[in-house]
Amino acid sequence: MKNLPLILWFRQDLRLQHHPTFEAAKATGQPILPLYILDDDTPAPWKMGAAQRWWLYHSLHALNKDLQAQGGNLILRRGSPSQILKNVLKESGAQSIYWSRCYEPFAIARDTELKKEFIEQGINIKSFNASLLFEPWEIKNQQGHPYKIFTQFWKKCLAQGPRFPTFANTTSPQFYPHLESEALTTWRLTPTHPNWAQGFSELWQPGEAGAHQKLEDFCTDRLTTYKEARNHPGKHGTSRLSPHLHFGEISPHQLWHRLHQLSPLNSSAESYLSEIGWREFCYHLLYAFPLLPERPFQEKFTTFQWQTDDKALRLWQQGKTGYPIVDAGMRELWQTGWMHNRVRMIVASFLTKHLLLPWQEGEKWFWNTLVDADMANNAANWQWVAGCGADAAPYFRIFNPILQGEKFDPQGVYIRRWVPELKSLSNTFIHKPWQASQAELHQANVILGETYPLPLVNHEMARGLALERYRQL
DNA sequence: TGAAATGTTGGGGCG
DNA sequence: ACGCCCCAACATTTC
Question: Known catalytic residues of A?
Answer without folding.
Answer: 275, 278, 306, 341, 359, 382
